[in-house]
Amino acid sequence: MDGNRRPPRDPGVFDGVVFSEMEGNRVSIRAVEGGVVFSVHVIPRSRKEGLAGFHGDAVKLKVSAPPVEGAANKAVVRFFAKLFGVPKGDVEILWGATGREKQVFVRGVKLEEAEEILARASGG
């Protein structure tokens, strides 16, 4: 995938789906061309920032930013860029920009890396 193309936006066209067991929860992490996609449940206006377990098949992320004018979305991108060690431009919210449930794409990360990093950061 060249740097200008984006991953497919239709969940039905992903290359593969792998479900990871983390603390007894099923977190959907999908390998797509160029990176991985996973579900995130965001809790804005939190005192502490960071992963806080799971919400269904999503990782739960607390951010201190309010859900106003994209501030919480910027905090989500910033958090996952730092967590995965990639530039902020390599993290994209594919859908869910106006809600708590989001699909996040991280470019340049392999499925196994994502599983390990999310498990470790979630305490799994």
Q: Residue ranges: pLDDT <50 for 5 or more in a row?
A: 1-23
Strand content: 35-45%
Domains (count): 1
Cα radius of gyration in angstroms: 13 Å
Q: Number of helical segments?
A: 2
**CATH fold annotation:** Conserved Hypothetical Protein Mth637, Chain: A
The mean pLDDT is: 83
CATH architecture: 2-Layer Sandwich
Secondary structure: number of strands: 7
- In helices, the fraction of residues equals 10-25%
Structure description:
With 124 residues, the chain is an alpha+beta fold. The chain has a single domain, classed as Conserved Hypothetical Protein Mth637, Chain: A, CATH 3.30.1200.10. Helices cover 20% and strands 38% of the residues. The protein is built from two helices and seven strands. The chain has helices at 71-84, 111-121; strands at residues 16-22, 25-32, 35-43, 50-55, 58-62, 91-95, 101-107. Strands 1, 2, 3, 4, 5, 6 and 7 form a seven-stranded mixed sheet that branches. A hairpin with a 5-residue loop joins strand 6 (91-95) and strand 7 (101-107). It is globular and about 30 Å long. The termini are far apart.
Q: What's a quick, concise take on this entry?
A:
The protein is an alpha+beta fold and 124 residues long. It is built from 2 helices and 7 strands, in the order E-E-E-E-E-H-E-E-H.
Topology:
Elements lengths: L15 E7 L2 E8 L2 E9 L6 E6 L2 E5 L8 H14 L6 E5 L5 E7 L3 H11 L3
Parallel strand pairs: 3-5
Antiparallel strand pairs: 1-2, 2-3, 3-7, 4-5, 6-7
Characteristic terms for this protein:
38% strand, disordered N terminus, 124 residues, alpha+beta, 20% helix
